[in-house]
Amino acid sequence: MSTPQSYEELWLDGPLNTRFYTRVYSPPQSTSTRAVLVYVHGYCDQISGQYYTDDHVAMTQRGIAVLTYDQRGFGKTALGEGRSPVSKYGNTGGGNERMHDVEWAITEASSRFKGAPLFLMGFSMGGALVVDFSSRTSSPPSKETQALIRGVISCSPLIRLINGPPSPLRTMLTWTSKALPNMQWSTPLFAKELSHDPKIADLVLSDPLLEPHGSLQGIGDMLDRGEHLLKSGFKLWNEDLPVLFTHGTGDPVTSWKATKDFYDKLTARDKSIITYPDMLHALNTEPDAKEKFREDVISWIEKHI
Questions:
Q1: For residue 13, is pLDDT > 70?
Q2: CA–CA–CA angle 75, 78, 79 (5° rounding)
Q3: Does residue 2 sit within a domain?
Q4: In this model, does residue 3 exceed pLDDT 70?
Q5: I want to staple 141 with a disulfide (CB 3.0 to 4.6 A). Which of 37, 103, 104, 288 is the partner?
Q6: For residue 79, what is the domain's CATH number?
Q7: Strands (E), 88-211
Q8: Residues 69-91: what's their mean pLDDT?
Q9: What is the pLDDT of residues 153-175, one digit of tens each?
């Protein structure tokens, strides 16, 4: 379990005049820092959940530092007292803004933990984002930033939704977002689809930092990214960059079969996929999988240090 000294809370100036609520988890003084992980959360998500804290504290006990942040338009970055005047819940920007933000986080982590091998991990929307970030051929990010990444971990990535919007609605949203990018669109929190633990749904539905909406631009970018990765993005992967995918086969939010399709298309020399039978979307909250999931991730990082 975490303690008040488990992490440092920071408000850091990031891209586009935005201050980001950030947490930095450092290994105990008795433990050397063997690696640093940058963690990117999912859609309508935030990093203060106890399940995230427990995961990240467990990593520090094995010498892995963690830097994580509430994404643009979400969590305390959008609603906290230290937020920027320009910040508003749901105003996430599109692909370029998100890429700038991940690049900023990697640069920040690399600066704070100089010389430590750096790993990039994301969940759901963040899971697809870290894969796309690592394989883009145009800035952002820069080639220099991509070169800092030792390995990528993609958890329950949003390659394809199980019940995505129908094609006519997708087309309408795309065209409307061009004129009204920050127009808010109501979206579900998928509280009951995250875990077999009913307490998780209660936590999500009662969390004042989670609101069930996002911008048309952000939603469109999120959905388009997965299709891009499946159709052509897989061709851009650096075959020398190790990657791990994790997904529950009972996930009712994002398709584990789409993740497997993408995995099969990758030509990476070092690629792994771990599936968890019948588990739902947020593996780190599943009573019958969270310990194995945590160990799978930490062991994979240790293998690649």
A1: yes
A2: 80
A3: no
A4: no
A5: 103
A6: 3.40.50.1820
A7: 118-123, 149-155, 184-186
A8: 97
A9: 999 999 999 998 888 888 888 88
